[in-house]
Predict the 3D structure of the following.
Amino acid sequence: MTLILFFGVFFLTLIISAPIMFSLALSALALLWNKGMLVPQLVVQRMFAGIDSFPMMAIPFFMLAGALMDTGGISTRLVRFSNYLVGWISGGLAHVAIMASMFFAGITGSAVADTTAIGSTLIPLMDKRGFPKLFSASVVAAAGVVGPIIPPSIPMVIYGVMAGVSIGALFMGGFVPGILVGLALMAVAYVQAKRHGYPRETVRPTAREFLQATSSAFGAILMPLIILGGIFGGIFTATEAAAVATVYAFLLGKFVYRELAWRQLPQIVYRAGLNTAMILIIVGVANLVGYIMAVERIPLLVAELFLSLTTNKYVMLLLINVLLLIVGCFVDGASALIIFTPVLLPLIHRLGIDPVFFGVLITVNLMIGTITPPVGLCLYVTCGIADVRLDQISRAILPFLLIEIAVLLLVTYVPGLIMFLPALFGPK
Amino acid sequence: MGNVLSAIQRAVDAAVRWVVIVLMLVMTVAVCLQILFRYVFNVPLGWSEEMARFAFVWVSFFGASALMRMREHINVTIFLDRFPARLRGVAVLLANLVAVICVYFFVVGGIALTTNEWRQLAPATEIPMGWVYVAIPVSSGLMAIWVLIQTIEAARKLAGSDRP
């Protein structure tokens, strides 16, 4: 009964386009009212407690660091460096886009930021070299998916705090799946390039040019190493690492690349603040939801419901993957993560699945949702840049989408791929 | 009259914008000082984490009010786009009412929390908690204004579409 009340209110309000924070809040209010516990002060107290968290503060810092890096001119440098690395392969610029996205993923924790940064540079370039617009838009959107998989990662920060697991371990776990997704995308791009005769770049840098490109891209490549090295070396927490990354990005853009102007700063900081609020206010409401859910034992009811279907760990992971892929088609990744993490955790514990493993898995899954129509944020971004329609790109993205789902299944059933690095560097 | 109102709105927007920007910087500086003092001066800072957390809460709530004003809160419009025009108007009005109900609880709860905890001191910074909590009723009050304006707009649009 409480299940129907909660999910009924949630889905009804979601369908009529109420903001997700209010959909969630009203569902929680309905449950509280039903229980006779509707005290306004309690409502805001739980929201406050959800936001008042030092670990969550890594989110604004990573948002800010990524934006500073992008405005500071890192994208073009990463593109030039990637061109020297992979431009000579058939389908040259497509590989450059994927490679540059992987590097950019190391300084941003967001798929949309990654897609925007690389897409705005590379889609016009690919257009000039004669790539069909739908192909370029698909490649860039699909490559943006690695943004939050390769550390740092905003979804992993959210999951880590909600599930109470080490954010550093989650970051480490994302490395291998992120690189696998990138390589798989390059394989698909290669096959398509061969079939349609897409051009490659003639890359003959002199040793001096190559060194110069490497050193100017090095500043960006160093960032994930500072973050992870700092966390695992026990030097600072994930949030402190994020703050250091922000200062580092500012210094690099302002004094090394010299492309960041003082007058750009207020708007960059403001936008990062708004993007933070967009997620954190949902996190706050979710804390209220989590509280009343725990009172009503909803996650346990959901766990029992799932366990009545199957108790096999592998079948369950498949079910969860399918469920989340479907959810990802309609709801953006961060919101879906905030909603589903507390609901699924008891189930995960009951089945003896490692919560770090599951955190990386759910991140990979929901980030694939950024390229699934009808609601795919990365698709929207590249559609805008390349000036193509959503229904057109929905078909063109299919091969890339399928290979990403294949990688998702691979890391689901070969858990060592995710757990290898966290186990290696984790606390002994 | 309309000019005065829009001037007030612009002033509020600008104030919220600077609150967000300044507090984002406060967060960054506080956390960096915390690291600096720990490693360079070997004295752990007591107040920095709490200070940064409070700034973070303010950024989240005031940012949320600005997002409300710009209608930028994350929502799902994919179903709405497939509704027939008339039903869409009704749905938008209902969605606004959902927001009105929730914001009402934020305002009332925020006022209660702020007044009840006004004299309570934060453990490390010894800031009165009222100063921290007051972000909730103020930002929710702003949200209430924006959502009421938007609800009236939605209702007018719906009433307007009745006439042939």
Notes: Chain B touches chain A through 55 residues (CB under 8 Å). Residues 96 and 150 of chain B are 7 Å apart (CA to CA).
